C-alpha cells in the first residue's frame, strides 16, 4: 500500500519533471540573469583595475594627481590596442555624454605620441574634457561592480557629485511618467473591457445552447486572428482618412476639417488594446456565469426583488470571481503590451514597454532595461497580493 | 469516418514531403556552411537588397566564381556581438549604417578596412583621397549615400507648392499634418536649419544645452500636427493616403513611388540630411580572404556607381558620381534624383555620426520626454 503510494508519487514527479525543466530553462533562468544584470556591471571594473584603484583614494573635488592620469592614460592605450576600450567607453558615456569620444580620442592620440613626462598636460591637450572633474567622476562611478544606478535611473533619479541621490534634470525625466501612464491606460482598458464584456458574457451564459455556440465563435474568431492583422485593421478604420471618419463626414455629422484623431494617440492605443484583450475578460466571466443557476435570479424576483436589486445582491456577488480573474488577466497583460501601442500609439499612447524594447535592442543598455522590467514585475506582484487579499485567491477563477 | 480515412494517408504524404524538404534544407545549410567558398552577405532586404544583388553580388560571382548568399536583417549590432563573443561567426560581410559601423569598430567586433587596400579611381586617384573625409567608419568599405528629405503630394497643393525646409515648419503658409520619423536624429538638425542655423554651425549648436532647447522649441511649433512614422515604407503610404500633406522620408522610397508607381510626389531637396552606410567584415570570420576580396570588388568606383542603375542612392566615392547613368528598368536619367547631384546639394547637411555616437542615448531620452509632454 505504502509502496504503491510512493510509486504513484514518483510517477507524478517524473511526469512533471519535463515541465519543471522547461520552466526553469525558459523562464526562471533568463529572469534571474536579467535581475542580475540590473545591479551587476563588471565590464568597466575588470577593464580599468589600476585606474579605479588610483581613483578610489581621490577626493572627487579637484583633478586627480599626475600618477592617476598616467595610469589611466596607459590603461586606455592598452585597452584600445586590444580593441576593448569601445565597450568601456560606451558604458562611461551613459553617465556623461561625450565620454565615448573623450576616452577613445585620448587613447588614439597618445598611442601615436606617448608623453615622455607629464601625462596630465598631454591628456588635457588631447581632450580638454580631462580637465573636468565630472569626467573622472563618471569613470569612477562606471567602475562600480554592484550598482543601484539602473534602478535610480529607472525612477528618474541619479547620483550627485558627493554620491547623494538627486532627481534627474527635468528634460530627462521620462520613466516615472511612462510608468504612471502605463498604469492609467491599463486601468482604463481593464474598466472598458469589463463594461463591454459583462453583458456579452451574460448573453453567452444564458442564451440557448445553439445560439451560445455561435456567439462564442464570434468571440473566439478574432481571438484566433493574428495580433498584427487586427492592429493594422484598426489603422484602416480609424485613421484620419479612414473608414470611420469618411463615414461621419459623408453622413454630415462632421465637417471635412473636423475629422477626429482616433489613432496615433492614446485613444488609438486604448481602442486597439481593448479589442485585443476583450476575450481575456469575456472567457473567465463566461465560465463563472455558466455556473450561476438561473433559478437564483428567479427566486430573488419571486421574493419581490426588482431586477436591479436581484442583480446587485444575488447575481453580481456570484460573478465576482470571474470579474476578479478577468480584470487581473487583462490588467497584467496590458501593462506589458508592446506591439499594439508601438503601431498605433503615436506620441501620447506609448507605454513603458517601448522604452524597455529600446534599451534592449537599440542602446544595448540591458542593465536599465532589466531594472525597468524588475520594477514592473514588482508592481504587478504587489498588485496581485493586494488584489488577492481583497478578493481572495481561492475565489478567483481563471477557467 | 470517410474524411478521416482520406485525410490520414494524405497527411502522411504531406509529412514525408515536408520531412524530405527539411532534410534537403538542412543538407543545404550544412553544406553551404561547410563550404569555404561561400560568402554570406547580410543586407537590409526589400528593393534595396535587390539592387545590391544586381549591382554587386551577381557581377562578383561572375568574375570570381565565389558563391555569395544574401541574407536579410533589420540593422543593429546585437546579433554580430553574439557571433563574435561566442566565436561562431557565420555572417561574413554586413551592410551597416555608419553609426553602427563606428560603434562596432570601436567595440572590436569588426575588421579594419584600410583605404590603401581599396582600388584607385579610374583616373588614378588613390581611394584615400576619393572617399570624402569623415564619411565612413574605419571598418567600412563600399556603401551608399542616402538622404532624408521632405516630400509632399502635389495633389494637396493646387496653388503655391512648398519648396524649402522652412515650409515644412510653416503651418500658416502650408497648413496640414506632417509626417516625421519618431527619432531625434535628423529631426533636430532639420529644426535648427529651419530656425536659421547655418549648415556648418548645426552640430556646434547642438553641442550646447541652449542649442538642444532651441531645436526642441522649433519642433514644438508643429508638434500638434505631427504624425510619427517608424518604418521607411510608411511615409510614401501616408502621402498616398493623404494622411499627411508633407513628410520626412528616405529619398529612395519616394523615388520608387514616383517612378515605379507614378505617384504625384515631389521631393524638397533643400535642407536634405545625408547619411552614409557601408559594408563591414565581421571580426573572426573564417572566410576573411574572400570577404576582403568582395569588399575590394564592390569598393571600386564602377561598382559603387552601378547601384544607381537600380535605386536612387549616391555612391560614397567622389569619382563614382560622374559614372552615374540611367535607371536600368525605366531608362530615365538618374542624375537629378541623386542626393549628391549638384542641383540637390545647395543646402545639404552631412550627418555627423561621431556627434551622434556620443550623444544618441541622451538625445533619445530627451526626445522621449519631449514626446510625452
Measured as a percent range, the helix fraction of chain A is over 70%
What CATH architecture of the largest domain in chain A would you give? Orthogonal Bundle
Please count the beta strands of chain A (DSSP E, at least 2 residues each). 2
Poorly predicted segments of chain A: none
Cα Rg of chain A: 30 Å
Distance between the termini of chain A: 35 Å
CATH structural fold name of the largest domain in chain A: MetI-like fold
- Domains of chain B (count): 2
Number of strands of chain B: 10
Order of helices and strands of chain A: HHHHHHHHHEEHHHHHHHHHH
Beta percentage of chain A is: under 5%
Runs of chain B with pLDDT <50, length 5+? Answer: 1-15, 27-35
User: What's the N-to-C terminus distance of chain B?
Assistant: 64 Å
The arrangement of helices and strands of chain B along the chain is: HEHEHEHHEHEHHHEHEHEHHEHEH
Overall form of chain A: elongated
Helices and strands of chain A: which structural class? mainly alpha
Question: Could you write a compact summary of the structure shown?
Answer:
Chain A has about 400 residues and is mainly α. Chain A has helices spanning about 1-40, 45, 50-55, 65-80, 85-95, 100-110, 120-125, 135-140, 150-155, 175-205, 210-225, 225-240, 245-250, 265-290, 295-300, 305-335, 340-345, 350-360, 365-390, and strands spanning about 155-160, 165.
